[in-house]
UniProtKB/TrEMBL annotation:
Function: Highly selective calcium channel localized to the inner mitochondrial membrane, which mediates calcium uptake into the mitochondrial matrix. Mitochondrial calcium homeostasis plays key roles in cellular physiology and regulates ATP production, cytoplasmic calcium signals and activation of cell death pathways. Sufficient to operate as a pore-forming channel without the need of calcium-sensor or auxiliary subunit. Mitochondrial inner membrane calcium uniporter that mediates calcium uptake into mitochondria. Mitochondrial calcium homeostasis plays key roles in cellular physiology and regulates cell bioenergetics, cytoplasmic calcium signals and activation of cell death pathways.
TM stretches of this protein: 287-307, 319-338
Protein known as: Calcium uniporter protein
Ranges where the Calcium uniporter protein C-terminal domain occurs: 253-373
Segments of skewed composition (Low complexity): 443-452
Entry keyword Mitochondrion: yes
GO CC, one annotated term: uniplex complex
């Protein structure tokens, strides 16, 4: 009886073995999937915990990339600043994303990782740049706890002195020495605008000042441009990244290039406009002269008919009255149509503007395109001049745009200012007239109520 039972148990074991293998295989697949999901979630929370984080991206593609040890601050065509920072940080690994053998903290210094690029607006504070850099760094361990590393921005101080705390006696001695050496003021900041193009100074001659994180990036760069570079210090990693500062020419490179490109179009269009304006003014002058000739001819006809014909003054008198009255009525209606002041300048402007529009259309000159182009060019000039004032640099405008274009832009800006002022004056007059009419209406209505 034992043999059949033994045979039965063996058969039972053989039948369950495939199920167990399938179950174990399925469980291993599920465990691997769960580990992959956890690893992806961990990578989302902390990007530096990615698989192969200690290998530079250039190494995986087989390209050779030199080690970047210094950052750069570049200008872009969109007025934004491109900050390039090499982050030679050490990579932290975790057990879930790596095997136990590979697990460790600070296994390899990732010196050859590709630099980090950040786009920054000049009006954004340094605290915004600090948060962007912190998002790319793993936390540091302080007293057994993870802590986000602080970022400090330091710039060179070009003034005299080492900016170190001193006692009262030491400060008095230093002040007396400074007064004996030079009588020039020492509390005036000097600006050069040379940036990285300036003379190189030794490390012992540099005095560094840490800037507040609430300072705008543009203000920080303008002050840092007095030296060749500024420093970005990362807490906990003992890393100080030197970043070269853009000079005035670097900061305004794209603006000056765009202005130079516009200057060619402005020069070509200004010639066409100058010819059309000259022809229009000549036509208006000829029209004015022909009007005087017509009046002189009318005077001669009246004189001849009155004194040298048999019709005499009896016929000429009513004709002259009617002709004069018709002229006055026609002029009055014309000025009502143009809605301008009764002046020679207004009549000339209307005549010239009509002739100009006809010539512009015949020559293919678009006045709206011209106005838009001039406005953009003047806006660029204003922006470059503001940066030149901030950098304390004399900008040679004629070198970038030319003397002729500079003169045209200045004239157009002056004319636009005069038109704006005249429109404002007309608007003020209309408002004053409206207020006076309202006062008269209210006074008359109050007088009528009193009488009633």
């Amino acid at each position: 009886m034992r043999q059949p039972s033994k045979f039965f148990s063996t058969a039972n074991h053989d039948e369950n073995e495939p199920d167990n293998k399938a179950r174990n295989l399925s469980q291993r697949v599920v465990d691997e999937q769960e580990r992959e999901v956890r690893a992806v979630q961990h990578q989302v929370r902390r990007p530096w915990h990615r698989d192969g984080a200690d290998t530079a991206p250039a190494d995986r593609s087989g390209e050779e990339v030199g080690t970047v040890t210094k950052g750069k601050l570049l200008t872009t065509p969109t007025r934004l600043l491109k900050l390039i920072l090499p982050l030679p940080i050490e990579v932290e690994k975790d057990r879930e994303n790596n095997s136990q053998h590979d697990y460790g903290r600070s296994i390899s210094a990732n010196d050859r990782i590709q630099p980090l690029a950040l786009l920054i607006h000049p009006q954004q504070p340094l605290s915004y740049v600090e948060r962007l850099i912190q998002a790319e760094l793993p936390p540091v361990v302080e007293n057994g706890k993870d802590k986000i590393p602080s970022i400090y921005f330091r710039a060179e101080d070009m003034e005299q002195g080492d900016n170190k705390p001193t006692t009262r006696s030491e400060a008095r001695d230093r002040d007396s020495e400074a007064e004996s050496r030079s009588s020039s003021p020492t509390h005036v900041a000097s600006y050069s605008g040379l940036g990285h193009e300036g003379p190189e100074r030794q490390g012992s001659d540099k005095n560094w000042v840490r800037w507040s994180s609430s300072t705008e990036m543009g203000d920080f760069i303008r002050d840092a441009a007095r030296g060749r570079e500024f420093a970005v210090e990362i807490e906990g990693y003992h890393v100080e990244i030197r970043v070269s500062v853009p000079s005035f020419r670097d900061r305004t490179y794209y603006m000056r290039a765009q202005l130079g490109k516009m200057s060619g179009q402005i020069d070509r269009l200004s010639r066409i406009k100058r010819e059309c304006d000259l022809l229009a003014h000549q036509g208006a002058n000829r029209l004015a002269k022909s009007g005087f000739a017509l009046l002189s001819g009318w005077w001669g006809v009246v004189y001849y008919v009155t004194f040298h014909t048999e019709f005499g003054w009896d016929l000429v008198e009513p004709v002259t009255y009617l002709a004069g009255l018709t002229t006055i009525m026609g002029g009055y209606l014309w000025f009502l149509y143009i809605s301008r002041d009764l002046s020679y300048k207004a009549a000339m402007n209307v005549t010239v503007s009509r002739r100009q529009n006809a010539l512009y259309e015949a020559r293919g000159f678009d006045i709206h395109k011209w106005d838009h182009l001039v406005q953009e060019a003047n806006a660029l000039r204003r922006e470059i001049k503001m940066i030149a004032i901030e950098y304390d640099v004399d900008w040679d405008e004629a070198k970038d745009v030319g003397d002729a274009v500079k003169k045209v832009l200045s004239e157009e800006r002056t004319n636009a200012g005069e038109k704006t002022r005249s429109l404002e004056k007309e608007k003020e007059k209309d408002e004053e007239f409206t207020q006076e009419e309202r006062k008269r209406t209210s006074e008359s209505s109050s007088t009528g109520d009193t009488r009633s």
